[in-house]
Specification:
By secondary structure, the protein is an alpha+beta fold. It has helices spanning 33-38, 50-53, 59-62, 101-122, 159-164, 173-187; strands at residues 11-12, 15-16, 64-67, 71-75, 85-89, 126-130, 147-152. The chain has one domain: HIT family, subunit A, CATH 3.30.428. Mean pLDDT is 80; it is low at 1-9. Strand 3 and strand 4 (71-75) form a beta hairpin. The strands form two sheets. A five-stranded antiparallel beta sheet has the order 3-4-5-7-6. Strands 1-2 form a two-stranded antiparallel sheet. Helix 4 (101-122) packs across helix 6 (173-187). Helices cover 30% and strands 15% of the residues.
Length: 191
């Protein structure tokens, strides 16, 4: 029995091996380390901006679900919940006030359509929509404006993210992208 209870993990020289699943069923997210360690400095310029680069690759590789004239919709690579979408202008601007009136209209229309599509695909009971402006405002990538569209369900804010700092995501990003992109195409409305 492990000192913390539950079934022991594999033992080598009287020590349990870290990172091996045990009775606690830990969720390991080492892929996030590169993002966490990179900080804001890696995204300061237009040349290395993931939101500028994404439209240059295939929709599947970039997780893009819809391309509009002035903005596009992409899955968040580090989602808070399954179906977490980002609405991004193609233009590399940091602030909401930098958008033209045309860009603002399409940005809003895509946000509305994202909600309609997610309701159809995942039946959430609510949404969080928001833009974090600047590093101090909490933006992960402050140099390129993006709006979060996060579907919410009752009970999705359980102890895991609050105490364990971990979020259980039930589908792969590729599966979610395919479902949302197909529903977007079927909807035939919005930008």
């Amino acid at each position: 029995m492990s000192e913390l209870g539950g079934a022991p993990g594999p033992v080598v020289d009287d020590f349990e091996l870290p990172g091996v699943p045990d009775a606690f069923q830990r969720l390991w997210t080492p892929h996030r380390l590169a993002y966490v360690k990179g900080g804001q400095d890696q995204f300061k310029g237009k040349d290395n901006c993931p939101f500028c680069e994404a439209p240059n690759r295939s929709d599947e590789d970039s997780l893009i679900v819809h391309r509009g004239k002035l903005a596009y919709v992409v899955l968040n690579l580090y989602p808070y919940n399954p179906g977490h979408l980002l609405v991004c202008p193609y233009r590399h601007v940091p602030d909401y006030t930098d958008l033209t009136l045309e860009e603002t209209a399409e940005f809003a229309a895509l946000s509305q359509q994202a909600m309609r599509v997610l309701r159809q695909v995942a039946n959430p009971s609510g949404f969080n929509l928001g833009m974090n402006q600047g590093v101090t405002g909490g933006a992960g990538i402050a140099s390129h404006l993006h709006q979060h569209v996060v579907p919410r369900w009752g009970g999705d804010g359980n102890f895991m993210p609050i105490i364990a700092g971990t979020k259980a995501i039930t589908q792969t990003l590729a599966d979610v992208r395919q479902q949302v992109a197909a529903a977007w195409a079927d909807a035939g409305q919005g930008s």
